[in-house]
Design brief:
Layout lengths: L4 E6 L6 H12 L3 E3 L18 H6 L2 E2 L12 H15 L5 E5 L3 H8 L10 H14 L1 H11 L1 H6 L5 H14 L3 H4 L10 E6 L4 H18 L1 H8 L6 H5 L9 H11 L19 E3 L1 H4 L29 E3 L21
Parallel strand pairs: 1-4, 1-5, 2-3, 2-4
Antiparallel strand pairs: 6-7
Length: 337
């Protein structure tokens, strides 16, 4: 009896994973397990570049558009759910295709993740409340107090990950880092990983075309719908609570916070054109720089020169990103909310 095989298609945004996965799944006569932590949610198919109706009809997909925007989901839950689907598919197929760029989801299936405590509703609400009331900096400080080891390892700009680590510390009574064993679990099937890639310029051109198509298909309207009612998707998917104040107040804050847009060519511009000043290209090309601007704040220091102010002249971003020169800076998609 041939060994069952999970074929994993992964790679950067815009590289063409969906098309390759569909072709491969059709050739193998099997189905696709999506490993995308955003496409799993309903109501935002444009912004998440979810498979189209034709693509979904061509090959059956699992874990696409199955959750509401207000539903909690984790990589641990995905590991359990995806393995159950894969096991069921292996009853009638020799191959299963998994496709997606959310590497935590991919690793959850291929390697397994550490067994962590289930977060109680009380702890989750308490952390969400503290994050909403005290802000991200206070949450980072709380993590440093509870687990200084993980504090040095985590991406501190990923507020959702920081808050989740605090939840685990509070729930378990132990530092999160002590629970992270990194042990790779053995799976009862063969795993073949295929990583797709393209030349950098070609990939950026594809992303530019994709974003323009998204706008034409109604990306702005879809984002506005996400700001309706009690679910503010931008805050939720940044790991922030929806609990502060009325819906109107939340939306007023979002209009300020949503001033962040991204250059759809190089992914470096992080604020609306009228708010951001930037260094010359030669400075920004440095891999040492991790620049982030905030609404209402002055330009932050450039990290190229050991924390000192950048020696290059600052430039005002109007319609072009100063790195790639050609790309419109995100078209200020959220500027009119």
């Amino acid at each position: 009896m041939p060994q069952k095989t999970l074929v994993v298609i992964t790679g950067p945004t815009g590289v063409g994973k969906t098309a390759v996965a569909i072709r491969l799944a059709r050739d193998l006569g099997t189905e696709i397990v999506s490993a995308d932590s955003r496409q799993i949610f309903r109501d935002i198919p444009i912004g998440t570049a979810a498979p189209t109706a034709d693509e979904l009809a061509a090959v059956r997909h699992h874990f696409v558009g199955i959750l509401g925007l207000d539903e909690y989901y984790s990589a641990a839950q995905f590991e359990e759910d995806a393995l159950a689907v894969i096991d069921r598919l292996f009853q009638t197929h020799d191959y299963v295709v998994m496709c997606g760029g959310s590497m935590m989801y991919v690793d959850a299936v291929c390697k397994g993740i550490d067994q962590l405590p289930t977060i109680s509703d009380d702890v989750r609400r308490d952390v969400a409340r503290r994050l909403a009331e005290d802000g991200a900096d206070a949450m980072r400080e709380e993590l440093r107090r509870l687990d200084p080891v993980y504090y040095e390892q985590v991406d501190l700009n990923n507020v959702k990950r920081v808050a989740h680590a605090v939840e685990i510390c509070l729930q378990s009574g132990k530092p999160y880092s002590s629970l992270r064993t990194g042990t790779v679990k053995q799976r009862p099937f063969r795993i073949v990983k295929i990583g797709l890639n393209l030349p950098r310029q070609e990939l950026f051109d594809r992303i530019n075309c994709r974003v323009e198509k998204m706008v034409e298909e109604g990306l702005v309207e879809e984002a506005r719908r996400g700001l309706q009612g009690d679910v503010c998707l931008f805050r939720r998917h940044d790991g922030l609570s929806d609990s502060r104040g009325s819906v109107a107040e939340k939306h007023a804050r979002l209009r300020q916070e949503a001033a962040y847009v991204v250059c759809q060519r190089c992914r470096h511009a992080l604020a609306c054109p009228d708010r951001l000043r930037r260094c010359t290209p030669s400075c920004f090309q440095s891999v040492a720089l991790n620049f982030r601007a905030s609404p209402g704040k002055k330009l932050q220091k450039c990290g190229v020169n050991a924390g000192k102010s950048c020696k290059f002249a600052y430039q005002t971003v109007e319609k072009s990103c100063k790195i790639c020169l050609k790309s419109v800076v995100g078209k200020a998609l959220v500027a009119n909310f």
